[in-house]
Amino acid sequence: MTAPLAGLRVVEATSFVAGPLAGMTLAQLGATVLRIDPVEGSVDGGRWPLDRVGRSLFWAGLNKGVRSVALDLRIPEGQELATALVTAPGDDAGLFVDNTIGRLYFDHDRLRARREDLVHVHIQGYADGRAAMDYAVNPRYGVPMLTRHTDLDRPTNHVLPAWDIATGLLAVSGLLAGLRRRALDGQGSRIDLALDDVAAAHVAHLGWLAEAEENGRDRPRLGNHMYGAFGVDFACADGRRVIAVAITRQQWRDLVRVTGTEKVFAALETAHEVDLDEEGARFEHRALIEAVLAPWFAARTAAEVLDAAKSTRVMVGEFRTPSEVVAAYRRGEESAVLVDVAAEGRPPMLTATSPLRWDERYLETSGARPFGSDTHWALSEILGLSDREIGSLADRKIAGSRSVPGRR
Amino acid sequence: MTAPLAGLRVVEATSFVAGPLAGMTLAQLGATVLRIDPVEGSVDGGRWPLDRVGRSLFWAGLNKGVRSVALDLRIPEGQELATALVTAPGDDAGLFVDNTIGRLYFDHDRLRARREDLVHVHIQGYADGRAAMDYAVNPRYGVPMLTRHTDLDRPTNHVLPAWDIATGLLAVSGLLAGLRRRALDGQGSRIDLALDDVAAAHVAHLGWLAEAEENGRDRPRLGNHMYGAFGVDFACADGRRVIAVAITRQQWRDLVRVTGTEKVFAALETAHEVDLDEEGARFEHRALIEAVLAPWFAARTAAEVLDAAKSTRVMVGEFRTPSEVVAAYRRGEESAVLVDVAAEGRPPMLTATSPLRWDERYLETSGARPFGSDTHWALSEILGLSDREIGSLADRKIAGSRSVPGRR
């Protein structure tokens, strides 16, 4: 199968999570993505997590399949080469993603003067242009205040950079929407996308802000209880924990059946004059439900619980650490979205391909490429420079050649 | 400006979060999106959060601008109408998003037999077709085990359905990538996307699995400390909390300067033989840095801290509850991505438009439409049925007419 974005060429100049994820997602769908990296290597080249010898697993994970063109943007000649790459002709080119750092070097109007139909996605921190990052934005929209356990004073900022991920994926959608518009009417697009706006918008889409306003108060802190239905974690006989969730009526009835608690809940429904078939009622009586179900979980290992749940519609998830996911992967138990990927300068790494499957197959993915691996190719193939010209740029350290991200 | 996806027509048949978010995101970019709803109203019509009189704010938030066509899919005639809508001709049609529930009624091969170039995104729980949901998937990939505070035995499952959001946004990217491929070579696409794969892939992309495997252990639980750089929350004089993050060297130097701690850190660097200009060193010495900085925060209100940070590159975020975000919005202090949107059957609601800005403007968004609002339009305009035929379908309850989501 031809990869869906085969033939498309995107230039990307970003760092941290959202921009690189956008570039990698496009590359995993088959686009040729060139990242413009500094000649001395990207700031992400040493970012944690690191492997045992200090090489960045962050960098190797978020740069898979993306080409690296190393240019010194602080020098006008380097900037001009980058601008020429961004605005190079072709129906399948003229696509550009940058972020706040890129703004120093890539002015939208100047780029558009060079290529009027450029589709340019600019990723920001705040919509006013100030820098921001996930870990500092997430607290602003209530997530850590609601996540904290009922017995903790301190809010709990979760470790997943969820807004970075959402921003990267929205940047991809924005770019492809801009491409579709251009194919239709030849127009270019200036698209701005702020991490802070992504957090605000999605919390608002989910109804959290309207709820606080219209009900005159914040939703309660719930520990691990799910809001608005029944879902909470249970301790199993082997000390492991699982979460069990029943949102639909069918899931709830299956949960009652598999735990053998029909008679207890029937009696409780009568005593409390409540119909637990309603998801809101299950939420209101969550502590009672948890207490009734707990002994069933406590009498079984997590494996037994998961096994029993298989014949039902109840959704059960086991709490695992990353090491436990790795062990399950090595036993062949995990989804084929996880793969070992070879990369230059380091041993093959456990990482992933795109979760988008085409014709029932995962697309192939390749590893991260050393900084500057594609400088010569880009300057020669796209800009038509001669070997001599490229050599001169390299001698003057305006264009960089291959370098493996250094050990710390 | 013409909205980027104006003219495009997408049929969607999903519920919960990921699918509706995909549909709404496409609608906010200008596509005409029809959701096929059950005649009796969607299961999401009563989903929490609810307003004071029991109307779903979840539904109103995630259905903005999406048309509703109510059909009884349990009856062959209703199924045939839905299939005809999905496979209706047109270069800008033949685009379909469904989820696990849709699978009962929409077989991919049967749809492709009707329209060979259909672009079909099928959202799943697990890649093998079993149901799953965010709250039960998230524990499987280590996030709650790493999020929990160091003094808690129980893992902490964060409240944000981050994987649902990522899945919805990837579905949009998949659909647009499939559309681009079709425009190029006329091919249709079968695209499957599992929530569980989205979680596995992104945790792997971030390097968390390779880290655990290559280093032979899981990263430590860090409370609210950021991993790999310096970032943690501080208590302010007024009892509020803020998070302060310094990832780059410039941010770190600004943090030291604004807090007047240059001499202390210089002495500590000498005493510990460490260079705190390195982000990994800041991470390793995070407890010490936190202790040195805490008095500066404790002596100032959160507002004073935020004000002082403005003249620096340090990233500071205030912990707010949703109510506090609402209050700031009403004072005119929030991003214009947040908007009040009118909808039939309920008062205007505080929600959001798309965070993707085009030509420096947010696109307009409209409110959720009552179930079945667009049944007549779709059957008449797209399928060419007469008023009499539509009347007969309505009489037999195969096609539904308008109904406002009920109060509980």
TrEMBL record, chains A, B:
<protein>
    <submittedName>
        <fullName>2-methylfumaryl-CoA isomerase</fullName>
    </submittedName>
</protein>
<keyword id="KW-0413">Isomerase</keyword>
<dbReference type="Pfam" id="PF02515">
    <property type="entry name" value="CoA_transf_3"/>
</dbReference>
<dbReference type="InterPro" id="IPR003673">
    <property type="entry name" value="CoA-Trfase_fam_III"/>
</dbReference>
<dbReference type="InterPro" id="IPR044855">
    <property type="entry name" value="CoA-Trfase_III_dom3_sf"/>
</dbReference>
<dbReference type="InterPro" id="IPR023606">
    <property type="entry name" value="CoA-Trfase_III_dom_1_sf"/>
</dbReference>
<dbReference type="InterPro" id="IPR050509">
    <property type="entry name" value="CoA-transferase_III"/>
</dbReference>
<dbReference type="GO" id="GO:0016853">
    <property type="term" value="F:isomerase activity"/>
</dbReference>
